[in-house]
Amino acid sequence: MQQQVPFGNAGPVRKKAATLADVARLAGVVAMTASRAINRSGYASEEVRERVLKAAKELNYRPNLMARYLKGQSRRAVGIMLPDIANPFSAELVDGIKEVLDKAGYTAFIALAGAGIEQERAGLESFVDHRVGGLLVATRGTLMGDEVLKEVARHGIPIVTVGRPVKSATVDCVSANHWQGAFDVVTHLISLGHKRIGFIGISAEDAHTLRRHHGYKAALEKAGLKAPAEYTVGPAMAPAFATQEDGYEGMMRLAGLKKRPTAVFARNDFAAIGALHAALTLGLKVPGEMAIAGFDDIPLGAYTTPPLTTVMQSTKEQGKMAAEMLLGRMEGRLKGARKLKTVECGLVVRGSTVGRGNRE
User: Fold this and answer.
1) Tens digit of pLDDT for each residue in 207-253?
2) C-beta of residue 109 within 8 angstroms of C-beta of residue 133
3) Which of 120, 121, 161, 247 lies 20 to 30 Å from 110, alpha-carbon distance?
């Protein structure tokens, strides 16, 4: 049975949750003073603040964020949770979201998950604490993150995810067809004669959580090919995008195998660019000795040497669709069971895969 993840600060689950009154009693102050000390919402001396915080920690006190949300009036504001802002995918997605929100008179607040699940959870809780009217979440799914989203949704806060289906009856989702896009690009590599194709961007242990990896495996299986576990390399499961560093390190690992792949499909274009740099550093001719393909079709991919084969997804359109869906929920125009919208992808063939080399 999956353990229920508590919503709030990490710590052991108490049979009876501590209240603000419990904290105040242990610290020797009144509840109002304890509230000011914890929330920094008014005057409290440093000595009192330290005493209150010590009591809160000792009692494992979790502020009731949901109660504070429900007590206040939700603002015409939307929280946007992103993995990072370095990847152009984020900028294009926010561009689409902002186009819709600005026209409707809503303000957007952005939080970044980075590589840490705890950081993602803190950002989501902060949105709730500041009473945003709804959430747009574009990070990759994790068990802890999904539990927080389900808890938020259970309290009636509208949520739309981008590229991240959550098993909840009330969390809507807009997503590119990641499985099909991956299937198509790997099929393209196979059509060029490649039989040993690696995957860069996530660890082999966590690859089952990634739809792009599912599409990669399906294309290989359809062609009667198999990829050993060591052909999948990358960081452990996290809410962030794969980076150039992940791509570089992944290619170095694959190139060091006794029987290395002759082609690589990277989880995204940033990882593919890192892999391309590693291949050139190792003296591997691209695409003659190592074909490389990515996913997302970021603008930079057309200007690498050689230009990057990739999968195009309409990122800005997904942002607009997600924002419109969220406002529909917030304003009561969209009702009923959760909505799932899928945007199809397109294969973009460039010089990083065209050509033939040693495939056996």
Assistant:
1) 988 899 999 999 999 999 988 999 999 988 766 788 999 999 999 99
2) no
3) 247
Closest to 225 (Cα-Cα) out of 260, 195, 184, 264: 195
Beta bridge partners of 93: none
Question: What local confidence, expressed as pLDDT, does residue 239 receive?
Answer: 63
Residues (pLDDT < 70) of the chain are 1-16, 40-43, 63-75, 115-116, 238-239, 355-360
Rounded to whole angstroms, the Cα distance separating 344 from 165 reads 16
Query: Which of 199, 90, 179, 76 is CA-nearest to residue 133?
Result: 76
Q: How far is the CA of 174 from the CAs of 117, 171, 339, in angstroms?
A: 22, 10, 8
For residue range 12-32, what is the model confidence (pLDDT) as tens digits?
Answer: 444 567 888 888 899 998 877
d(Cα 111, Cα 248) in Å, to the nearest integer? 27
Q: What is the pLDDT of residue 258?
A: 94
Closest CA to 125 of 146, 148, 109, 147: 148
Cis peptide before 165 (omega within 30 of 0): no
The number of C-alpha atoms within 13 Å of 344 and in the hemisphere containing its C-beta is 3
Can you give the pLDDT at residue 148? Answer: 83
Burial 129-160 (b: 16+ CB within 10 A, else e): eebbbbbbbbbbbbeebbbbbbbbbeeebbbb
Neighbours of 236 (CB within 10 A): 9
Using CA atoms, how far apart are residues 247 and 292, in angstroms rounded to an integer? 11
Tokens of 258: 């006794």
Q: How far apart are CA 10 and CA 148, in angstroms?
A: 12
> In this structure, are residues 243 and 234 in contact, taking their beta carbons and an 8 Å threshold?
no
**Inter-residue contact 80 to 108 (CB < 8 Å):** yes
pLDDT digits (tens, 9 = 90+) for 74-104: 568 999 999 888 888 899 999 999 999 999 9
DSSP state of 227: -
pLDDT at position 179: 97
- 247 vs 294: CA distance, rounded Å: 10
